[in-house]
Write a structure and sequence with these properties.
The chain has 10 helices and 26 strands. It is of the alpha/beta class and about 400 residues long. The strands form 7 sheets. It has a 5-stranded parallel beta sheet, covered by helices on one side. It has a 5-stranded parallel beta sheet with strand order 9-16-10-11-12. The protein has 3 domains: about 170 residues, FAD/NAD(P)-binding domain, CATH 3.50.50.60; about 120 residues, FAD/NAD(P)-binding domain (3-Layer(bba) Sandwich), CATH 3.50.50; about 80 residues, FAD/NAD-linked reductase, C-terminal dimerisation domain (Enolase-like, domain 1, 2-Layer Sandwich), CATH 3.30.390. Helix 1 crosses helix 8.
């Protein structure tokens, strides 16, 4: 069995193959020298110093050795799906019985003058975090480009380290269509209360390096921001080039069916790079989340061994910012109407209903201590939305006197 991509998905799939009884060779191939690790801590606990790089590991070195997983640090140059072989940069080849593409994605780069200057960094890998961490010193001036989840988490981490932080976002509000506008506004206010200067409808035009090593970020409106470090968080590009070159169907990522099988026999894809069928309709989606990586890895591994398990997990992710947490379950963007539920501790959940009055998503925001239990129930409601009578749904969801658990 071969797995290309030695991140969270690749590592969990290799572990699952052993747990499922596979005793043959497992080749886990990745370009990074690190053993598989989880990405969520990179923008949070790792930058704040609350967690070390070793503590981000998916499993211990001993566990990988015990499972006899062969970790190969190399770059695969080509796939031959007919011959079922991989070709490496040095010309060597490897045969596979089944192949999992867990290639993830690459951080998007700015395409403006000065984007490659020293001190202009992005955050995607452990090495990226290792480069950024030491620069978040007390009083350091940090400009974050991008008001999505990574940008906001980095901004919160930098503020906790005492940095002077300015965040710029090209759109009119933070987090795009990922969350309701009201929640985006609350997150905006939270960051400003914690000392982040946020500029929306604002994009960088160029970056210049001064003689003292500092950076000037020139904005499209003519203003200039002085920075010691610029951190770019504008999303990722799915790493689907290897699949495309092999003739495997690609569409903003590697297209898979409900069993996570690609258009090539014996080849599967999972994680950030996979475009898979939505449970809410005929469209396809791609998810860049811990939950997606964790759950798709296990389904893909079982199917590599001959199972025909369908991936039907509900999309879900969270983002920790200061003492607040944001959670999104389902696909809120599909909603045609909304119901807002206010809960204790200044937290709220926005339920999104489709045209058939079924729940298609829930977005929660507030202090983590107040949100966690209610949002867990909200996730379950979205999961089982069809079981709730439509005529009772809006009032029941909005009324805090009605226990969400009772609706299950």
């Amino acid at each position: 069995m071969a797995i290309v991509g030695a991140g969270h998905v690749g590592g969990r799939a290799a572990q699952t193959l052993r747990e499922a009884g596979w005793r043959g060779r497992i080749a886990l191939i990745g370009s990074e020298p690190h053993l598989p690790y989880e990405r969520p801590p990179l923008s949070k606990a790792l930058l704040t110093g609350e967690r070390s790089a070793a503590q981000c590991g998916l499993r211990s070195l001993e566990a990988w050795l015990e499972d006899n997983v062969e970790h190969i640090v190399a770059t695969v140059q080509a796939i031959d799906p007919v011959a079922r072989t991989l070709r490496f940069g040095d010309g060597a080849t490897m045969a596979y019985e089944a192949l999992l593409l867990a290639t993830g994605g690459h951080a998007r780069r700015l395409t403006i003058p000065g984007a490659s200057l020293a001190g202009v960094l992005s955050l995607r890998t452990l090495d990226d975090a290792a480069a950024i961490g030491p620069r978040l010193a007390l009083g350091s001036r940090v400009v974050v480009v991008g008001g999505g989840f990574i940008g906001l988490e980095v901004a919160a981490s930098a503020r906790s380290r005492g940095c002077d932080v300015t965040l710029i976002e090209g759109a009119a509000r933070l987090m795009g269509r990922a969350v309701p506008a009201v929640i985006a506004a609350r997150a905006h206010a939270l960051h400003e209360r914690n000392g982040v200067c946020i500029l929306v409808n604002c994009a960088p035009q160029a970056i210049e390096r001064l003689s003292d090593g500092t950076l000037d970020v020139l904005l499209e409106n003519g203003d200039t921001l002085r920075a010691d470090t610029v951190i770019v968080g504008i999303g990722i590009e799915p790493a689907d080039g290897l699949a495309r070159a092999a003739g495997i169907e690609v569409e903003r990522g590697i297209v898979v069916d409900e069993e996570l099988a690609t258009s090539a026999r014996g080849v599967y894809a999972a994680g950030d790079v996979a475009v898979f069928p939505s449970r809410f309709g005929s469209h396809r989606i791609r998810q860049e989340t811990w939950h997606n990586a964790e759950t798709q890895a296990r389904v893909a591994a079982h199917n590599m061994l001959g199972a025909h398990d369908a991936y039907r997990e509900l999309p879900w992710f969270w983002s920790d910012q200061y003492d607040h947490q944001l959670q999104v379950a389902g696909e809120p963007a599909l909603g045609k109407s909304s119901v807002v539920r206010t809960i204790a501790g200044d937290a709220e959940i926005h339920f999104e209903l489709g045209s058939d009055h079924r729940l298609v998503g829930a977005s929660g925001f507030g202090p983590a201590s107040a949100l966690a239990k209610e949002m867990k129930l909200a996730r379950m409601l979205v999961e089982r939305g069809a079981s709730i009578a439509p005529q009772q749904l809006p009032d029941a969801l909005a009324n805090p006197e009605v226990k969400l658990k009772s609706l299950l």
